[in-house]
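Sequence, structure tokens passed on for absentees:
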Amino acid sequence: GILVISHEFGHFIAAKKSGIRVDEFAFGFPPKIFGYKKGETTYRFNLLPFGGYVKIHEEDDDEEFKNDQRSFASKPIWVRSMVIVAGVVFNIALAWAVTVGGYMIGAPVSADSVPGGASIKNVKVIIVGVQDGTPAQTAKLQPGDELVDFATIKAAQDFIAKNKGQEIALNIKRDGDNLSVKATPSTNPGGGKGALGIAMDEIGIVRLPIHKALWEGTKATYYKIIVIAGALFNFISEAVRGGVGFDQVAGPVGIVSATGSAAKLGLTFVLNLIALLSINLAIINILPLPALDGGRLLFLLIEKIKGSPVNPKISSLVHGIGLVLLLTLMAIITYHDILKLI
């Protein structure tokens, strides 16, 4: 809800500032709980809190609305583009704001990347990767597990090295629960794999004053954008080749589950998750696909090149088909999310 409302508020405020009439701004999806009208805009609060929407006056680029100066269609291409892009901009702004806020209240940071002049507290050894076909995968160790018996990575590595070929018990903390996991480090792993097959990092909490939080939050947001954009590009490339399964994606149900896990670790982990999801939403929305903001920008680019809008019937048909495909994909992903929980 926070992610989508932030996105829709971007469209809302950009349209308002551009002199475009906004007929409705809604939190959640119908059925309606209550609403009220202020000025020319109706504000609605709906029952299903999974997002929201904004209804902009005559949003379709139809020639018959060109003379209505309060319509979206009457505005120059650059104004319409700004209104469309504003949703993405506000998602990036949300990610930046919560990242800065996380640094101010105390953010999880790798011990190797502590900002200059800052001190790190409550350092823990965390599993950040599990290799396929290794004892760690067999023992069902997961990224995010805390190795509670070790103060440093070296201590964990030394313990594993001394017990190659012998069953060991690892005490871990996962989602706030203490567990004991048994595994047998390999004596000859080969293939570039470790004896146990895990990658570790020392993660602690860093709290920064506001001026440093602003700078580090900006750098961290930029880094997240680059990493997520690269990951999404690789994901789409693999999907085109048929190498992606539904276990690698998540919908609303999966997000709720991930948020619950993050909440057990603390507020800063929830803020970090919000930032990551908000950037994901921004990048996905800017892709030039029908029904997404990027698809609408593509149609404006075509209009700019050809000197006239795309036929509204064609535009509506393309975006309608895109929306149906997106909703179908979301239904399938949600189904698989529920199966994972079961």
In short: The first strand starts at residue 22 and ends at 38. The chain has a mean pLDDT of 86. The radius of gyration is 24 Å. The beta strands are 22-38, 41-56, 107-110, 120-130, 146-147, 168-174, 177-183, 198-206.
